[in-house]
């Protein structure tokens, strides 16, 4: 079974090496909508794939990092990178281009890593990310699956290769969120008291 959670943010970028003259030379922004689709082969004690409320913590924080931020490819011109860091308090340095395709891969990668390191407390089993859809405009989106995240031809994704500005980190519920992710520390879901006894 699959569930879908929608996230929204405003973000600016330049997409270097693309075909469009406007997109590859000028900073511009989009109102993104991100569809995070999770799947599992069984339901938890609340008979859910994964409680939507649990997606309002670490996964929401990491996706919200993009909001009102500028994203840049860390291989871009050093002067441009320095200007982004100097004139914007909110920025994310990516090891890949800030395209819709890469946003879908990056968000899939982060969400899957958070789920993998989460200590479940309510009978959740084999919950995983099925897909991420990154709507860049009303007419265009990119969709990512697990094979795309693992495909190094599309760019290797390693947790240590991302960098977040101080203001982005300060606005997380836990400012040490990403460092914990890199260290492989557990994220623990809240404990649940059973109100109705089940056979599960």
What descriptors fit this protein?
single chain, alpha/beta, Tetrahydropterin Synthase, Chain A, 7-stranded mixed β-sheet, 9 strands, globular
Task: Give the topology.
Layout: E1 2-13, H1 21-25, E2 28-39, H2 58-64, E3 69-73, H3 78-87, E4 91-94, H4 100-116, E5 118-119, E6 128-135, E7 141-144, H5 146-150, E8 163-164, H6 166-170, H7 177-183, E9 187-188
Helix pairs in contact: 2-4
Describe the structure.
Its EC number is 4.1.2.50. InterPro entries: 6-PTP_synth/QueD (IPR007115), 6-PTP_synth/QueD_sf (IPR038418). Keywords: Lyase, Metal-binding, Zinc. This is 6-carboxy-5,6,7,8-tetrahydropterin synthase. With 200 residues, this protein is α/β, with parallel strands linked by helices. It has one domain: Tetrahydropterin Synthase, Chain A (2-Layer Sandwich). The protein contains 7 helices and 9 strands, in the order βαβαβαβαβββαβααβ. It has a 7-stranded mixed beta sheet with strand order 7-6-2-1-3-4-8, sandwiched between helices. It has a two-stranded parallel ribbon with strand order 5-9.
